[in-house]
Specification:
By secondary structure, the chain is α/β, with parallel strands linked by helices. It contains ten helices and eight strands. Strands 1, 2, 3, 4, 5, 6, 7 and 8 form an eight-stranded mixed beta sheet that branches.
Length: 289
């Protein structure tokens, strides 16, 4: 079983990296990719990036160093997955530092706006939701709002308070899709468009992949069978790499599915590995069976 979309407490997951690996082992996973939002800290916590290592086996599970970069295209939020990156690459570390500073400034504005709208929370309450790790984002704000009793669920928090146009929403500058792809490929990785069905990017997939990406996440916990089949056909027709994963965030979290609930076929994964192993500057795409 292979799951190429997993989060830890390095971003908005509920479980620390070592705990995630233990959960994966218990679920019978052979391979997982740690793909935290805008950081590879979760991968580094597992020893990835040491001497350039981009994957390693822990407790019988191959763990791939990854990242999920939040990018922007024509004012749309777009997520770009990176696989087999060097988690300690200087460009990745610089990106993480810059993103963390921007997230902190954004968080302070969100807390002020929420208080003005009658939903007060302290910034310390948001940081508590990170478990002392990672840079807080909207999911942590949503959990703090639930803990305070302002809303019943994180879904309600987003729909009422945290989405664009809502009282607590604060926009912030994001890299372009091409910049996200450049960051990932510059760190030795392969860049893939994340969950295009979830983000309603169907009409823009070809344009976005053309910005330096190598494939798309065909299988995802939010893609229904018809959407999955359509993406699979499109990727095969274009010769794009295909990936799949649960988007696991935690055992008691609304986002995503359980580890291994949306498995990636072995052939897709091995094609991804071969693409990552090609020399810098060589084409990353190949036809997949």
């Amino acid at each position: 079983m292979i799951d190429l979309h997993v989060h830890t407490t390095a971003s908005d997951g509920l479980h620390a990296p070592r705990e995630v690996v233990a959960l994966a082992a218990r679920a019978g996973a052979d391979v997982i990719a740690i793909t935290d939002h805008d950081t590879a800290a979760g991968a580094r916590a597992l020893g990835l990036g040491t001497s350039g290592a981009r994957s390693r086996t822990i407790d019988g599970v191959e763990v791939v160093a990854g990242i999920e970069v939040t990018a922007s295209a024509q004012q749309l939020e777009v997520h770009v997955l990176g696989y087999f990156i060097d988690a300690s690459d200087p460009s990745v570390l610089r990106f993480e530092s810059e993103r963390a500073a921007r997230r902190r400034a954004r968080l302070e504005r969100m807390v002020r706006q929420l208080a003005a709208a009658g939903f007060p929370i302290a910034i310390e309450e948001v940081f508590e939701q990170t478990g002392g790790e990672g840079a807080p984002g909207r999911p942590h704000v949503a959990r703090a709002l639930v803990a305070r009793g302002h809303v019943r669920s994180t879904r309600e928090a987003f729909e009422r308070l945290l989405l664009p146009g809502c009282p607590g929403y604060v926009a912030y500058e994001r890299p372009s899709v091409r910049e996200a792809a450049s960051l990932i490929t510059g760190a030795g990785g392969v860049a893939v468009l994340a969950h295009p069905g979830l983000d309603r990017l169907v009409d823009r997939i070809e344009q976005l992949v053309g910005e330096g990406l190598c494939g798309i996440e065909v299988r995802h916990s939010a893609h229904d069978p018809d959407v999955t089949e359509a993406f699979d056909r499109l990727a095969q027709a274009r010769g794009w790499l295909r990936t799949g994963g649960s988007d696991f965030h935690g055992l008691a979290v609304e986002e995503g599915g359980a580890i291994g609930s949306v498995p990636c076929p072995r052939g897709w994964f091995e094609a991804l590995r071969r693409a990552a192993d090609r020399p810098a500057g060589a084409p990353k795409r190949e036809a997949q069976r």
